[in-house]
Amino acid sequence: MTRRVVVTGAGVVSPLGHSPAALHQALAERRSARRPIELFATAGIGCHEAGEIRPFDARAWVGERNLRPLDRTGRLLVVAAQLALADSGWSAELRARHEVGLVLGTMFCSIRTIAEFDRRGLQLGPTHVSPMDFANSVINAAAGQAAIWHGLRGVNSTLAAGEASGLLAIAQAADLIRGGRAAALLAGGAEELCFESFFGLFRAGRLCGSQDPEDPANIAAAGRARESPIPFDARRNGFSLSEGAALLMLEDAEAAAARGAVVQAELAGHGSAFDTSRGGPAGAAAMARAIRIALDDAGVSARDVDWVSASANGSMAGDRNEAAGIAAALGDHAAGLPVTAVKAMLGEALGASGALQAVELIAGLRDGVLPGILGLEATEDGFPLSGLSAETRRLPPGAARCALATALSADGHCSALVFAAPERQGGDFHAAPSGEGPA
Amino acid sequence: MSRRIAVTGLGVVTPVGTGHEEMWRNLLAGRCGFSPVASFDTAAFSVHLGAEVQGFDAAPHVRVLDRERLGRASQFAIAAARLALADAGIDPAAVEGERAGIAMGTTSGEPREVERFDDRFLAGQLDQVGGEFMALYPCQSIAVHVACELGFGGVNTMIPAACAAGNYAIAHAMDVLRAGRAELMLAGGADAFSRITYTGFARLGAIAPERCQPFDRRRKGMIPGEGAGVLVLEPLDSARRRGARIYAELAGYGLSCDAHHMTAAHPEAEGAARAMWRALADAGLAHEAVSYISAHGTGTPTNDRLESLAMRRVYGPASRTPISSVKSMIGHTMGAASAIEAAVCALAVATDRIPPTMNLEEPEDDLDYVPNEARDHRVEVAMNNAYAFGGNNASVILRKVSAAEGGAAP
Q: So what's the pLDDT on residue B180?
């Protein structure tokens, strides 16, 4: 009865490359996205580096079409969508005949556009603001702009859940396909780097570099890690802000087969939960709940999971709760299980980060290469996961069949997605869950 | 067979009343909630009216979280959520929190927080910005705060789909319940009155100077507003088991995108019609079955013309299906609008009364816009339409549940 959801393409724009293959290569080489920020002045902020995409000129992809109506988030998304459409073979001609929709995760869309619009109105008066900027001040602006640009007439939804936005957007798209409401959806996330979010997150103490380096408590706890984010490491003290856009093309498996699409992976199941303590110790239980729901939804057991792609970004509570949640949900199987944390290199791209994780995970399903955690030296006493590696690893041939992507937002959103390699379609992963007969 | 979903509780915070009883009384009486904007100085504008929620007191509603650390939209949302749960006879403390979720829509999230940031930016006082900016501003904080206030640890979704966001959130909650991912969902939308929104619509020439006249030939625009609407949604069978009052069944929805223009609707209303057709198909209904249409009806020249065209395309040129826009009284509450209007539809279905389109003197055409007076009318099925920036279209259908099935007696 339930439709199956497959991935037939991906598009990515990131500080570490603009294709899934380039990103995978950079992550395998553990190249850091951190570089001095040039997009805006950082004078007066105690932190000067981020994962800025540079150079980024959307015209390199989209040609001479008028880009003026698009802000940076819109441009990142339009390019990622173009790449994902091309990768999956959804030509303009095909899109004219069949609806394609979009489910986008983002935290701010463009807080820069919103704030600059407001400031212009205050400084010059309300008659001097630009109607075009106002159109981009709504949080679903990028999704709307991408729909116009690429003729996406299907469902157009935007979802905001901080660092979990990207995975939750992919999950929502999967349910729309399973429910027969859409046959083809681009799903993922987009976020731009800008002064407003960088400054705000710095002041909130969330960036690595936010903490006062002169404060003895910080020197004692995390002094050495001050300017580099190290997920799961005992010295972590915040994340490195980043930016990007990443989209998967998700399709109903039968429709994809009918059009002869190449299946890159199957999205076998997903689960979500919310931590009402917002970062308290209860976050681990919520993360575990999301994973159990996802495994159950996919009809797999913990021992089927070959590795986990975690959202850990260097946050104190977040990384601890995510690790504990993974350990609790996977039980004995968690011991020694490879767990990756690509934000060690990529940084935290907020609404885009879950989708970047998903793109990288799918690349790993192809070749078994799991990026190391740059800078990882030692975890805290009692840390529950033993399968972390600072070095990049390669799983034996045939051992990368099923992987779990997890995300935990600072606000408490927990998301887990189960992806399976395409050769397992119709295999034992897809036996009906116990207690549920054929429909 | 899909689970059927019931609407069992309504909570609203609107410019014409907090709580659905007060709002409904005022809507049926044709009272408008407009007054000169109080939350910021409009001296530099050529228009001055707004639909603000006057004298809102969060104290009775916000019992767990610290009110001082909540944006205005979050406060509205918590109030609407508490009112909806009380209306449904549900004690949140008695709910299995892990199976209870939140789906909220918004246009701007907590715009006042970024406006405060901008004030400090321009005053050269960025050093006064602390951690509260990022704690309060991001739009997902609305759904997050409702969940934390109530202890609901299930699905938590924030859908910033602009002025169709309430319908989007309700649609998402319906899928969550149908898929068995929750047993109880609070779904709706919230927005706070915003300088940014007001400036933008004023620049577009879309704000009416004196009154809001949806579907009138001389209409001059919308009146921006604020508020929140929340519906309690649960599976129909469990609602009946617990003896809940059932306002209506959430029978289906349809979404589409124009992919045409960011702020203007498709000239042939193609996407709006597609959303309505899709909602009818989802509910398994023909258009003849619809007894009331709650229109988006902002009162702007373009929206109302194209919306009428869309309704003619779906309902036929000779349609006499009653249509009204409560925005003539409530104004345009942005991301809350279609959630409040979904509550209006639930009340119309439950009570067989239709609120009027006020200030309607010269109708756009000969569709039945229920001008100026509420009407007694059997409402078996109501369709709630909403359209948004980005070309987003969302139609939601509510259907009467017979008394034998536990439906509310009018």
A: 97
CA–CA distance, A70 with B194 (Å, rounded to integer): 23
pLDDT for the residue numbered A428 = 42
pLDDT for A214 = 53
- Asked whether the ipTM of the predicted complex exceeds the cut of 0.85, the reply is yes
- Say whether pLDDT at A430 is over 50: no
Nearest CA in chain B to A146: B259
Neighbours of B148 (CB within 10 A): 25
Mutate to test the interface with A, among B48, B150, B158 (most CBs of A within 10 A): B158
Q: Name the token pair of A403.
A: 């992987």
Among chain B residues, the shortest Cα distance to A296 is held by B181
B231: which 2 tokens?
Answer: 């519906």
> Which positions in chain B touch A196 (Cβ < 8 Å)?
114, 117
Cβ–Cβ < 8 Å for A366, A179? no
| pLDDT tens sequence across B108-139 | 999 999 999 999 999 999 999 999 999 999 99
Asked if the peptide bond before residue A55 counts as cis, ω within 30 degrees of 0, the response is yes
pLDDT of A425 over the 80 cut: no
Question: Is residue A84 within a helix (H) or strand (E), and if so which, with residue range?
Answer: helix A72-88
Helix (H) / strand (E) containing A105: strand A101-105
pLDDT of residue A426: 44
Residues 6+ apart with CB under 8 A from A43: none
Does the pLDDT value for residue B36 go beyond 90?
yes
Residue B401, by phi and psi: left (phi above 0), alpha (psi -120 to 50) or beta?
Answer: beta
Q: Name the region of B316 (left: φ>0; alpha: ψ -120 to 50; beta: rest).
A: left
pLDDT tens digits for range B316-375: 989 999 999 999 999 999 999 999 999 999 999 999 999 999 999 999 889 999 999 999
Q: How far apart (Å, rounded) are the C-alpha atoms in residues A26 and A33? A: 9
Q: Is the distance from CB of B395 to CB of B167 less than 8 angstroms?
A: yes
Active site residue B296: yes
Residue A246 · residue A358 · CB < 8 Å:
yes
Helix or strand run (H / E) with residue A50: strand A49-50
Distance between CA atoms of B235 and B214, rounded to whole angstroms?
A: 35
Please name the helix (run of DSSP H) or strand (run of DSSP E) that holds residue A272, with its range, or none. Answer: strand A265-274
- Per CB-CB distance under 8 Å, the chain A contacts of B203 are 126-127, 129-131, 134
**pLDDT attached to residue B295:** 98
Determine the Cα–Cα distance for residues A239 and A348; give it in Å rounded to an integer.
6
Q: At what angle do helices A282-298 and A316-330 cross, to 10 degrees?
A: 40
The structure tokens listed for B222 are 């919308």
Question: What are the angstrom distances between the C-alpha of B402 and each of B320, B345, B379, B398?
Answer: 24, 16, 12, 13
C-alpha span between A346 and A243 (Å, rounded):
9
User: What does each C-alpha distance from B57 to A176, A377, B53, B85, B146 come to in angstroms?
Assistant: 39, 52, 10, 18, 16
For residue B246, the 8-state DSSP code is: B
Alpha helices per DSSP H over B219-368: 236-241, 270-283, 301-315, 327-330, 337-351
β-bridge pairing B381-388 and B292-294? parallel
First to last CA, chain B: 29
Is B280 in contact with B313 (CB distance < 8 Å)? Answer: no
CA distance A112 to A161: 19
Give me the catalytic one of B145, B148, B332, B345. B332
**Nearest residue on chain A to B113, alpha-carbon basis:** A115
Q: Are A250 and A177 in contact (CB under 8 A)?
A: yes
- pLDDT band for position A208 (50/70/90)? confident
